[in-house]
Amino acid sequence: MQKQKQCALLFLAALLLLLQTVNAKSDAEAVEAAPEVVAAATHANLNDKVKVFTVATEPTDGYRRYIRSANVYDIEVTTLGLGEEWKGGDMSKAGGGFKINLLRQAIEPLKDAQDTIILFSDSYDVIISATLAEIVEKFKESGAKLLFSAEKFCWPDLKLTDQYPEVEGKASRFLNSGAFMGYAPQVYALLEEPIEDTADDQLYYTKVFLDEAKRAKLEMKLDTQSRLFQNLHGAKNDVKLQVDLDSNQGTLQNINFMTTPAIIHGNGLSKIELNAYGNYLAKTFNDVCLVCQENLLDLDESKLPIITLTIMVPQAVPFFDMFLANIEKLNYPKDHMHLFMYSAVPLHDELIKSYAEQQGKQYASAKYVLSTDQIDERAGRQLALDKAIMQHSDYIFSVDGDAHIDDEEVLRELLRHNKQFVAPLFSKYHELWSNFWGALSDGGFYARSHDYVDIVKRDLIGIFNVPHVTSIYLIKHSAFDVIKYEHRDFDPDMAMCASLRNAGVFMYLSNQRYHGHLVNADNFNTTVARPDFYTLLSNRYDWTIKYIHPNYSLQLNESYVLPQPCPDVYWLQIVTDAFCDDLVAILENYGRWSDGSNKDTRLEGGYEAVPTRDIHMRQVGLDALYLKFLQMFVRPLQERVFTGYYHNPPRSLMNFMVRYRPDEQPSLRPHHDSSTYTINIAMNSVGVDYEGGGCHFLRYNCSVTQTKKGWMLMHPGRLTHYHEGLLVTNGTRYIMVSFIDP
Ligand SMILES: *[C@@H]1O[C@H](CO)[C@@H](O)[C@H](O)[C@H]1NC(C)=O
Ligand SMILES: *[C@@H]1O[C@H](CO)[C@@H](O)[C@H](O)[C@H]1NC(C)=O
Ligand SMILES: *[C@@H]1O[C@H](CO)[C@@H](O)[C@H](O)[C@H]1NC(C)=O
Ligand SMILES: *[C@@H]1O[C@H](CO)[C@@H](O)[C@H](O)[C@H]1NC(C)=O
Ligand SMILES: *[C@@H]1O[C@H](CO)[C@@H](O)[C@H](O)[C@H]1NC(C)=O
């Protein structure tokens, strides 16, 4: 295939050159088009003249990235050792002689080819970021016959430091074996001496270099100014990633020498930096994200992967009922999912248990662990992993209780990416808090990256290799074995990410689609009854969904006709059943209803002319929240119905729930409210929870008796709307009343 393409290109080039000579004067377009085609032809030639080798025993994520970068620049690579057992020892200590032995064998046929150039580099931690033509040019400019990359550290034998030639300024003095380039005879001569597979390759090359006679004979040099190669370890301040604002394409510059190295090596501890640069190098973008389109998988509906769906709730989270409703809606056959649910929170045990026992029947299997089982988060996550391995699942889809899925396609979308590890971007509404880190601090904790804000705000859309992900992610079985939750200093999330990083499994984060969001569990007070109700200010979005009537905003439309059961009494859809049920439960749990007498110590004067059995919002710590509720949701409706009256924020000294019961206080005598306008929200249902009741407006001889749960009556206060509470004959009636702008 590749060869055919080259021949075709050569043929085309020849044809065009011919055309050019024939038509040189008349056809300007052909002249314009020609150089590109000729350049392509040169490329093809270069692949014949320059042999690119790497060693990789496994096709790791890093290897795939390297090969992709080579493909992007039409560079043909020969991979040595693929599929073989690695015999080169532990590379984090020393080793790599194996690489030398593989390379020697591979280039033996080329040993006399004086025109052939060999480029060797590692692959797991290398990215090519230039064409072969540029690479060859940089090599030739060096004047060396054998050019090695250089780094800042003398490794593995520090004692050799003084034997190295001095370098100026910020140049790199020491040889690094991760990448080198040379003419075939010189490279072959370099590899002359035998070496054990497990001996250190860098030391081997270093000894040749430090032998002045050999160095001279091989015309061997180090690329001390990073003209061709950039080793990143210890070079954080030497390089700068330049990302073009229009194309989002990146180049890495060495700012000490203003060079643009073509082969970038994340040696030693600099793998995370390489990963970050790699998000922009080698044409991952061209305005839009190109790498996002590559290697996508079409799901075969007849052979869908088996998933272990892991629901983890290590800490209390608001809106857990909504979380589970979204899990239930995931578009994926439940008989292809094993469900594992973990709770360390008494508050959530009941919902977990009932979900696992009820909906769990639809899943391939369902298991749950509750807080009473006393399994800590680390062990809980390990248990989930063990289950997935035992179940021979193809993937683990792990979702924490704070990650609310809003897109039921999320699992399928993630599967399509076909990665070992991929996560959707989830963030808190209107906050920069998200489920990933763009960079790590030296201690392995959070650090902000240059692109963090753009990714969270989705100003930059793509797929990014990041060092830390939490809350929601998909892991392929090939990565199960490397995951470790145990760690002396790290929490289980950090431990997992560290183990994936150490194993070279890339954690990809995609923000190509909006899939969901994080709820805010900060300061979530679980000691109160119905704690979700208290979180309006910290979780405005979810609070609104749970507690504000779904038809609320329709009513703000001028053309929506609002019912008026009595003159200037408006009837409005304001809150959900959950609002009513939770608020009644909060107040009944508090339980200290007033005694209905005129003496009321909660009031400034201590006297109530028209007393009711009630509880004030202030008594249950909800006054501030309720005022916010009035401002956010009641005021816009008021402005629609009583045109021209504008008080923001609304003031209200009295926000209270009234309880009517036949045996307690069954009705309320006629009275005026001391308000500009009054709202009265029905908290339960006539005919279901009670009989009788309602509100009678005397001036109009008009009653509203069929009140509806979650609907609000809004009427003027102190002059026209003299009214009474009608007799409740059975059951208990609750209403929530505010006297606004007294
Ligand atoms: C939680 O609510 C209780 C009851 O209202 C209150 O006493 C306590 O101070 C609150 N705790 C926090 C951390 O806000
Ligand atoms: C919302 O209003 C429509 C009519 O406008 C009604 O059919 C629907 O039931 C309402 N939704 C709820 C939840 O009450
Ligand atoms: C208001 O309602 C009308 C009629 O239903 C509709 O055509 C219009 O789009 C609505 N306006 C807004 C802003 O929703
Ligand atoms: C009030 O209305 C009721 C019917 O709804 C009627 O029976 C009654 O006579 C009216 N009272 C007055 C004072 O108009
Ligand atoms: C009150 O309601 C209960 C059930 O809701 C019913 O059993 C009972 O008969 C009712 N009592 C009266 C006096 O209507």
TrEMBL record:
Pfam family, one: 2OG-FeII_Oxy
This protein's GO CC annotations: endoplasmic reticulum
Primary location class: endoplasmic reticulum
Keywords: Dioxygenase, Endoplasmic reticulum, Glycoprotein, Iron, Metal-binding, Oxidoreductase, Signal, Vitamin C
Signal sequence segment: 1-24
Top-level taxon of the source organism: Eukaryota
Residue stretches making up the Fe2OG dioxygenase domain: 649-742
Cofactor: L-ascorbate
The protein's enzyme class: oxidoreductase
Locations listed in the record: Endoplasmic reticulum
UniProt-recorded name of the protein: procollagen-lysine 5-dioxygenase
PROSITE patterns: FE2OG_OXY
Catalytic activity: L-lysyl-[collagen] + 2-oxoglutarate + O2 = (5R)-5-hydroxy-L-lysyl-[collagen] + succinate + CO2
This enzyme's EC code(s): 1.14.11.4
GO terms for MF: iron ion binding; L-ascorbic acid binding; procollagen-lysine 5-dioxygenase activity
SUPFAM superfamilies assigned: Nucleotide-diphospho-sugar transferases
Tagged with keyword Repressor: no
